[in-house]
Write a structure and sequence with these properties.
Elements: E1 3-6, E2 11-17, E3 27-33, E4 42-43, E5 48-55, E6 57-62, E7 65-70, E8 74-77, E9 83-86, E10 93-100, H1 104-118, H2 131-140, E11 144-145, H3 148-166, H4 169-177, E12 184-186, E13 191-193, H5 196-200
Antiparallel strand pairs: 1-2, 2-3, 3-10, 4-11, 5-8, 5-10, 6-7, 6-9, 12-13
Helix pairs in contact: 1-4, 2-3
Length: 211
């Protein structure tokens, strides 16, 4: 499935090229954002993020610099740089997002969050009710809150994510929402988690997700 929909916040995501399809070179997808859509100030340590506006306009804050990208305009947020976006428009905004290098975890975060929303397991802003899930989504997608909140919450977020992973939550979520899509490399546990369809044809001795 190339297109996923979040019925709670009205977002759409269309995957053009996944990290797996580009051998890890990049991830490329289009996001359609509802009016008022925003995310908290955050950063990524292993990939840069390029936004290109296709429809509407996108307000982007990078460190302390504020800007508005309009149709045809792009901006690349480098690794480790604090940023956030906001759709101030009265209509939906469509943005092409390119992660360099590609990041399967970031792709799977979208699949899981949109799937949880469809299953009624998020609040009105699309945030999972379960704190363990929220921490795990930040961890697998290489997303850290920026500023003072990063110093306060990063150690706890990592601990909560690891606890959730040991309890099997990561595999459960990947199985339900991502198993048909992609391969996930869990470097912290030095294993490869494959979808059931891919694992049938694999001769490698790897941990696999099973339904």
């Amino acid at each position: 499935m190339r297109e996923i929909i979040n019925p709670v916040i009205g977002h759409k995501c269309y995957f053009i090229k996944t990290s797996e399809e580009t051998n890890g070179a990049y991830s490329h997808y289009e996001l359609t954002l509802s009016p008022g859509s925003k995310n908290p100030r955050h950063k990524h340590s292993v990939y840069a993020e390029t936004y290109t506006v296709l429809e509407g306009a996108l307000a982007l804050t990078v460190n302390d610099q504020e800007m508005t990208l309009r149709v045809g305009e792009s901006y690349t947020v480098e690794k480790g740089v604090s940023h956030r976006f906001l759709n101030k428009e009265k209509n939906k905004t469509k943005v092409a997002v390119r992660l360099t290098p590609g990041h399967t975890g970031a792709e799977n975060k979208l699949r899981i969050l949109f799937g949880l929303a469809a299953d009624g397991m998020t609040d009105d802003e699309g945030v999972p009710y379960c704190m363990d899930t929220t921490a795990l989504m930040a961890d697998i997608s290489d997303t850290q809150l920026a500023g003072i909140f990063s110093l306060l919450f990063k150690p706890f977020t990592k601990q909560i994510a690891e606890r959730a992973r040991r309890a099997g939550l990561e595999i459960k979520l990947l199985t339900k929402y991502c198993s048909k899509h992609s391969v996930v490399i869990d470097k912290s546990h030095r294993r490869t988690i494959r979808s059931p369809e891919k694992n049938k044809s694999s001769n490698q001795s790897e941990s696999s997700i099973t339904k």
